[in-house]
Structures are given as C-alpha cells and as structure tokens.
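Suppose a colleague, Dr. K., hands you the sequence of a protein chain of 326 amino acids and asks what its three-dimensional shape might be. Before reaching for any lab equipment, you can write down a predicted structure in token form. Begin with the sequence itself:
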Amino acid sequence: MKLRKTAAGLAAVMMLTAVITGCADKAEETKAAESTSGSDVQEGAVSKEETAEEAIEIATKPMTEQYILGEMLKLVIEDSTDYSVEITKGIGGGTSNIHPAMEKGEFDLYPEYTSSGWVMVLKHEASEVSDDEMLEKLKEEYEENFDMTWIGLYGFNNTYAIAVRKEVADEFQLKTTSDLAAVADQLVFGGNPDYIEREDGFKLVCETYGLNFKDVKDIDIGLKYQAMENGEIDVTNGFTTDAQLSRDDVVVLEDDKHLQVNYFCSTIVRKDSLEKYPGLEDALMKMDGILTDKDMAGLNYQVEVEGKNEADVAKEFLTSKGIIAE
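The predicted structure, expressed as tokens, is then:
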C-alpha cells in the first residue's frame, strides 16, 4: 500500500472522535428538518436543500479495497439521488471499531464481509451455516439486534491466505501452510488486529496447522506488506484480492487443509438511515453483483502498483459498467 494511503488512514483515525461528535450533533438537527415538506417535493423524495447539512456518512477500513468501495458507494449514491456523501477512510481496527460507531449512529453504512459479521460481531462459528444461507441469517440477526441490514453482494470473495517473504519461502522450501509448522518458531508473524483477534482467523490457523511463531505483532492492515518488505515480519495474513500477492517477493502458501471460509462483500446500513433517505436502498443495490475477484484485484493493482487515485479508479469502473453516467 502506498504511504499516502497509510497516512490518510491514520489521519482519519486521529480525527474519528471529532467526526463522531459532529455526526451525533447533525443527527439531532436533522430530526427537526425532516418534519418540513413542500408542495414542490415529490412524494417519498427529499430535496437537496433539506439534506444539505446532513450528508450520508460512510466508514471504511484501512485498506485499498475498502477505499475503492467507499468511493464506489459515494458515486452510486450521489449519481442516483440528490444526497451528498462523506467518507471517513481508514478507521483503525476495522470491524471492531466501525460496528460500535454504527450502533451509535455515527455512520450510516459501510462495506463489510459476510464472515466478519458472522464471526466477529454475532460471535457464531464460521461453519455454522452455508454461504447460501449466511446472508439471510445476517440480515435477520442484524435487524433484530442492531436495527441494521445487509444490502446486496458485490460479487467478489475476499478470503484469507497466508503469505510469506519469498526469501523465507525459498530458504525453508515452503509451499503449503502445513510446511510452515516445522519452522514457525523461527519466524515472526505480523497481522492486522481483526485477524489476530477473531476465532476463525489467526487462532484457528495456528490450531489447525500446529503453528507456534517466534513472535506475533499487531500491524495495521495497511502496513503489513511494507513491514514484510522491510524484513520486520516474515509471515502475514493476506486477502485473495490483495494486489501485493502478485508481487515477486511474496509467496502465497497453499491452504492444504482447506481451512478458510468465504468473505463475500456487501453493504451494512442502519435501518433508520434507509427510512431517512428514500431511494438509498435502490442506489446501493446498483452495487449488487458488479465485481469478480479478478475485477477487485485489478482495481487494487491500479491504485497500489500503478499509483492511480482510488476515486478515479472507482469512477472509471462504474462508468465502464454503465452504472453511473459519464
């Protein structure tokens, strides 16, 4: 990940408290504004003037993929409605910090992965339901417990992979995750907090493959590959849509015990936000099924390797698909 992306993510985290306070204040102001309607406003619609001071708030995790998805969500909403959108990018801790902020009404929506919600938030076992059943179960429990819902599936599956520095893979002839067990006590693992804390993440990999690392470091999701490049860590958790996994200096180990579960991406939205912003759900459904794993990896590559701006990459993709106007 480019340093400018990392800096932006860290800055967003430092500003989170101020943003949260502002969002809470604005939420109270809007309750009064919603009671006002004019004869020139169509039934079920909200004029731009009425929502000018109440932008839809989107949160993203500190990773390139989420930055791109946040920009896509902003573009489809603003192209399809009169609402304005604000994005808070790169919130450290990912789900563990964004979900509580969503519960408090500090954000309206964010892109999330099915098994992250199932395991980290709802505290279920990853294997409890099939992929086909999971989305409906997520909707049911999020609506019941948090007054939130999941809207659509973008189409790609960003699941976990174990990656090692190529020189380490070459030295120890590592090809599978099982191969790692014999040398893990000589290596340093560095992973993002979400992965290290979750039951179906680092703990399960270590238990399944018998891994006992020399040291384990919490590293922000946007800094892992830089730490690996610098030799600070030897092994990390990657994602199947990571652009960095195509680099020559990184080797992805085969999940030879077929451990990893699927992480399909969707949008979590507060139910009161859907009521407050008529037309928002229809706008969000334009993201349904538009991205393959290959598409997402390619978009990540454009930003991280080719140095393109995530907003430009998002706009070019959505325009090419005819989802937003040129």
